[in-house]
Amino acid sequence: MFSLRGASIVIRHAGLKSRGLATVSDAQASFRIPLIDFSKFQSGSPVEKKSIATEIVSAFKESGFIYLSGHGIPAPVIENAFAKSADFFRMPTDVKDSLRWEDPRANRGYVKIGREQVTQSTDAAEIAALREKAPDFKETMEIGRDWDSVWKNQWPQETDAPLFKDTMLDFFGQCHALHVHVMRSIAIGLNLEEGFFDDKIQEQCHNLRLLSYPPIKRALLDNEGQARAGVHSDYGTLTLLFQDSVGGLEAQNPHTGVFVPATPIPGTIVVNVGDLLARWSNDVLRSTLHRVVAPAAKPINAHETITPARQSIAFFCNPNFSAEIACLPNCGTVPKYPAINTETYIVGRLAATYS
Questions:
Q1: What does the alpha-carbon distance between residue 343 and residue 235 come to, in Å, rounded to a whole number?
Q2: CA–CA separation, 164 vs 13, rounded Å?
Q3: Does residue 67 contact residue 154 with C-beta atoms inside 8 Å?
Q4: What CATH number is attached to the domain comprising 247?
Q5: Strand partners, 281
Q6: Tell me, what's the pLDDT at 222?
Q7: Considering the domain boundaries, does residue 227 fall inside one?
Q8: Residue ranges of the Fe2OG dioxygenase domain (predicted)?
Q9: 3-state secondary structure of 133
Q10: Per residue in 150-189, pLDDT tens?
Q11: Is residue 146 part of a domain?
Q12: Global pTM exceeds 0.90
């Protein structure tokens, strides 16, 4: 059953059991994505900041997902980013292909439909087989920090996409600033110094991903394993997801295995924990599996239906590529994972994901 109750998305599944022998409790069967007003953290009193920080960390422990309102990125800025993204994907295929993604160390450029297969597998042969059988039906544009001396962004000509570069660089900066503040809230919620993460994320080794899900005949999505984006978790610290009204994002209840719609709520950003933050926190914070499915299709003739187009923008937040990710203070006495370098981890995951 799906219901919007107060400031949360709440999903309950009665009578479901876990993979073990025990029955799933009511608390586990209820999957909650709370809606949190972040303005109270950014401009509130110390008591209000602590309250919001505790609420965010509690949600990240339980579901790994939140809706963030009062985040400080103006609606016109977000709307303009969506408009310029749509302009980009309307460009001719040969123009987009000239900006193609080429190297996982750069992680920049255009990715055509079917090239990426997001999955939890790390086996190259298995991923290749999945990509051949059921590739993700989406196209993307990947943008990194623009001052990098080694890896350059793949910008279209200004005549092909007016103001695209300026818009995306401004948006990148605003998303990074929000990331810093959310990480400060996490630090407070974990009883660390508020600025604990500041010098570990200031190099802005992030990835701004523009996503376009074109209309597709419903029958083409009915293959086993096929989806607009397959089941996966994200790689870095946090993901800031900006959705249009079409929807399709679903998070998996870790206790029941049931996928729960993260229904778009106007004015909010969906924020979820990535694998590196989960690892950094010794799994105190949860990196939750999720996917993008197609919404209800519309008939185009007596025998076929077609799904609507969908747009989203994801800002994948990462630690500095030079950072060593090892068990944080206050997150257990026995580390579950050996320390790992951020760049080694991120590049390794990207290399396996793309053909």
A1: 11
A2: 44
A3: no
A4: 2.60.120.330
A5: none
A6: 60
A7: yes
A8: 201-319
A9: helix
A10: 999 999 999 999 999 999 999 999 999 999 999 999 999 9
A11: yes
A12: no
Residue type, 133: K
Question: Over 50: is that where the pLDDT of 129 sits?
Answer: no
Average pLDDT over the chain, rounded to an integer: 86
In a domain, 89, yes or no: yes
**Four-CA torsion 242, 248, 253, 257, nearest 10 degrees:** -150
Which band of pLDDT confidence, cut at 50, 70 and 90, is reported for residue 64? very high
Are 270 and 71 within 8 A, CB to CB?
Answer: no
Report DSSP state, residue 219: G
Q: How many Cβ atoms sit within 10 Å of the Cβ of residue 29?
A: 20
Residue 6 backbone zone (phi > 0: left; psi -120 to 50: alpha; other: beta): left
DSSP 265-308: -TT-EEEEE-HHHHHHTTTSS----EEE-----EESSSS-EEPP
Backbone angles phi, psi at 210, to 5 degrees: -90, 135
Residue entry with tokens 């899900």: 213
- Return the number of other C-beta atoms located less than 10 Å from residue 184's C-beta: 21
Identify residue 69 by its one-letter amino acid code.
S
- Which SS3 state, helix, strand or coil, does residue 124 take? helix
User: Considering only CA atoms, which of 221, 241, 246 is closest in space to residue 135?
Assistant: 221
How many separate helices (H) and strands (E) can be counted in the chain? 10, 18
Is the residue at 317 inside a domain?
yes
Sign of the torsion angle spanned by Cα atoms 336, 341, 347, 352: negative
Q: Which two tokens stand for residue 309?
A: 């187009």
Structural domain total, the chain: 1
| Residue 209 near residue 240, CB atoms below 8 Å | no
Which residues are CB-neighbours of 330 under 8 A, at least 6 positions away? 190, 191, 192
- pLDDT value for 32: 86
Of 120-134, 215-229, 259-273, the range with the lowest mean pLDDT is 120-134
What are the phi and psi torsion angles at 269 (to 5°)?
-115, 135
Which residues in 292-306 are b (16+ Cβ under 10 Å) and which e?
Answer: bbbeebeeeeeeeeb
Task: Please write the tens of the pLDDT for every residue from 275-320.
Answer: 999 999 999 999 999 998 877 777 777 778 787 888 999 999 999 9
Task: Provide the domain limits for residue 116.
Answer: 38-353
